[in-house]
Amino acid sequence: MARKLNRKESNLNQENYNIDENIDNESTPADETSKVVKIPKAHKTKNTTKKTKTTKEIKETKEVKIPEESDANKEETNIKQETPNYINTSLIRPTRKNNSLFITSFFSDKGDKTNHNNHFTYEEFDNYGIWVLVDGNNGGDFENELAPFIGEMVIEEFKKKQTIEPKEIKNMLEYIHKRCILMQKDKYEDMKQYSFCSIVLMVTDYSKIFFANVGNARCFFLRDEEILYKNCDDTLAHLIYEKGNILYNEIRFRKDKNSFTQRFGLDNRINVHISETFLLLPNDKAILLSQGSWENLDEEDIQIQLNNSLRCGQWISNIIKKIRNNNTFIQNNFTLCGIFMDRPLPYVREPNVFEKFGVWLKNNFVKILVAIFLIVVIISSKIGYDYYWLNEYSAQIKKAIDDGDRETAEQNFLESIPFYREALNIYNNKLSKISKKIDYNIITDVNYKIEQSNLGHDILALIKSADDTFINDEYESAKGKYIKSLELMEKFLIKNKLNKDAPQIIKDDIVICGILQEAYIKKMDADIKYESAKTKKAAIKIYKEILPLFEKYEREKICEEIMSKINAIEPEKVVVLDTTNYIGQGDVAFGKEQYYAALELYRKAISETSNNDKNIATGKINMTSIFINGLEIEIMGDNFRNKKENDRALVQYKNAIVEYNKLSNNNYFTKDTYNHIIRRVTTKIDNIK
């Protein structure tokens, strides 16, 4: 199959040249005797794997038979030249491409190999152009498919985002490299089956160019028949050249020219080589070569053949002859492409940001004034609108908070919470959207009020539940609820929302529950003994001991039950406490665990009784004071234990025992009561340890 050396038409009289694959050492340059007339295509891509002597893919061609040659030059030379039909010039769009003249000629041959593994393609868009050469002759299971896959993907990706920015081209090549790896991973697990390639490309906006490459495909940029730029490749041989140990032309004779330092489509990371950007001058040239081409050429050969050529096709034809003359052994796949940039666009400096802004400002001055006027009107309206609703929402928030505070003051805690939540809702969903200055104090204060209202409701609910439990003679359960309500009271910090004496009342209730629980346990024991005739007297003794306690705390049903049982056995021995004097009244108060009231009554007895009663009152005052001190210390220990502060609770319990020990031999404090109290506190200490 013929290889096309194509030149994109931006001039009606420019020519496109095809050089057949059969050109060899004896072939002659293109001439007018072998011409095929055809309409050129907009884009040409070649990856040829078979040799043919005709160009079947070119439509509307007319072949002219080449005259026979002498015996010394018998091989047929099938060189074709294309000329465009005449076109109405008024239909040509004034694009960058059409205002410049780039001539492209390329040749690709499989050489002596079975398959052709190279690929060349290019595309000239209206404002940008790209030329891509892929050398895929590097082994692996994808060796025959990799080059066209990479080449066409480069064209497709460049078409999506046409640019002259080197960074974008580098990113594009890295993306294609990753896709190539994923494609191979999907088919093979063993990396030994992977294929890799070398790639070199040229990008232009028709006024400037730059080159990019990975691997050992090469490119040269020439001006005035001198090489202005040549790319570096990724082989060990090139590294040795860079260190100055060998000459550039010696690279092609070394075996390590195939030892790659990075491989496109295989290695995890690659570093794309990007050249500087060159501003084009008329008659600049460039050439792209695969390894099969440059390994048979010195760089001087490229310059010499350029000096001997008038056209791009002739230059490529002469280089092909040189490659074949220089190679006497097996010829690898070889592909090369020449580009003559006969008439690039003149470079025009783009205006800077300030210049662009000045032009834009001048062209849009009236529009800007109108826009500013409208913005001022809109902002003024928005400020007035926001100011009105700012005051309105603030008033709504204040009213909701005041309503909630009123309900809280009346201890309607559950009814206050919806008002507080309404205030938060107005603030978060309405006020905060108008005012960006968020007053976190409002949010914190209202959330605190909601928390305290929930706490107040819980306290009242616990106290009511404890009272109901107490009435049902479930003293232990009632005591636990009173203790829990007392703990919550310590967290309830809203002033004047509960009775200020509530904590002291709850403390007294806790003590009463403890005393009645112990008495109730004794009653149940007495009830069992009362059922037996042998232990009735023991039961009566217990009843007499606990009866004053139940009378003291007005447990009428229990008192009636106990009195009926005592009267059934000893009706004449029922004793009623004498409460006609302060000492007797104090004893009743002490029995009801109203210790502070008892202490006050004993003190009154000192001034209004006989000397003997004064001594009794003094003794009872001393006993009651000691007992109250010990009880307060014990209750403090209970509070610490409920808070899981066991170390502090242990200290308080030990201090309570020290205080209670002062009553061990007190004439007014019974031995049984003393032993019971000490046993109770000791048990609490043991539970902590």
Unreliable parts:
1-87, 572-579
**Straight-line N-to-C gap:** 100 Å
What's the rounded overall pLDDT mean? 79
DSSP E strands, number: 15
The shape is: elongated
> Helicity range of the residues?
40-55%
Note the total helix count: 19
Q: Give the biggest sheet.
A: 7 strands, antiparallel
Q: What Rg is obtained from the alpha carbons, in whole angstroms?
A: 54 Å
SS-based structural class?
A: alpha+beta
How much strand content do the residues show? 5-15%
Q: What does the model show?
A:
- The protein is 51% helix and 12% strand.
- With 689 residues, it is of the alpha+beta class.
- The model is unreliable at 1-87 and 572-579 (pLDDT under 50).
- The two termini are 100 Å apart.
- Strands 3, 6, 7, 8, 9, 12 and 13 form a seven-stranded antiparallel sheet that branches. It has a five-stranded antiparallel sheet with strand order 5-15-14-10-11.
- The protein has 19 helices and 15 strands.
- The chain has helices at 143-160, 166-187, 236-242, 291-294, 299-307, 312-326, 353-363, 365-409, 413-434, 440-471, 475-491, 502-530, 536-552, 556-569, 582-591, 595-608, 611-642, 646-660, 671-688, and strands spanning 3-5, 16-19, 45-46, 79-82, 101-109, 118-124, 129-135, 198-204, 208-214, 218-223, 226-230, 273-274, 278-279, 284-289, 334-343.
- The longest helix has 45 residues, at 365-409.
